[in-house]
């Protein structure tokens, strides 16, 4: 069982940056692949990024590649999402998730946080 709590969301102007954090409970954090998803109003929840158990392998949605960076600190049971060059279309609730493999489908992740709102203004 893993409990996830996101933080770091907020309001930022286009072109700005935010860093999201997701703190996990339990001693099995390093055994999970971690992912970030987002859901904008009226849209499906979509994959943003994922990171392997050791942090060596990462995967990104095309829409954020080159702007967002996922990382993890297994000693702190925390995964991060550094978001640069933010655009209004990045506005969404951002969720972290834990699962067994490097997947892009939400159904492949077992544990979810409650989400944190990111709003990017013009």
Describe this structure in words.
With 122 residues, this protein is mainly beta. Helices cover 0% and strands 48% of the residues. Strands 2, 4, 5, 6, 9, 10 and 11 form a 7-stranded mixed β-sheet that branches. Strands 1-3-8-7 form a 4-stranded antiparallel β-sheet, with no helix packed on it. Strand 5 and strand 6 (58-60) form a beta hairpin. It is globular. The mean pLDDT is 96.
Describe the secondary-structure layout.
Elements (H helix, E strand, L loop, with lengths): L3 E4 L2 E4 L4 E7 L8 E7 L6 E6 L6 E3 L7 E6 L4 E6 L8 E8 L11 E2 L3 E6 L1
Parallel strand pairs: 2-11
Antiparallel strand pairs: 1-3, 3-8, 4-5, 4-9, 5-6, 7-8, 9-10, 9-11
Q: How widely separated are the two ends?
A: 40 Å
Radius of gyration: 13 Å
Q: Count all strands and give the number.
A: 11
Helix/strand/pairing class, anyone? mainly beta
Oligomeric state, counting identical vs distinct chains = single chain
Biggest sheet: strands, sense, closure?
A: 7 strands, mixed
Number of helices: 0
Mean pLDDT: 96
The backbone outline, from C-alpha atoms, is globular
Low-confidence segments, ≥5 residues, pLDDT <50? none
- Share of helical residues: under 10%
């Amino acid at each position: 069982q893993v409990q996830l709590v996101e933080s770091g969301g907020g309001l930022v102007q286009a072109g700005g940056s935010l860093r999201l954090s997701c703190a996990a409970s339990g001693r099995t954090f390093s055994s999970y692949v971690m992912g970030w998803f987002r859901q904008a109003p009226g849209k499906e929840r979509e994959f943003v990024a994922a990171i392997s158990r050791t942090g060596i392998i990462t995967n990104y949605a095309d829409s954020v590649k080159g702007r967002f960076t996922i990382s993890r600190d297994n000693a702190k049971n925390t995964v991060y999402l550094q978001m640069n060059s933010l655009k209004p279309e990045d506005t969404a609730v951002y969720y972290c998730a834990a699962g067994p493999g490097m997947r892009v489908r939400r159904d492949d992740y077992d544990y979810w946080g409650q989400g944190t709102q990111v709003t990017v203004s013009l």
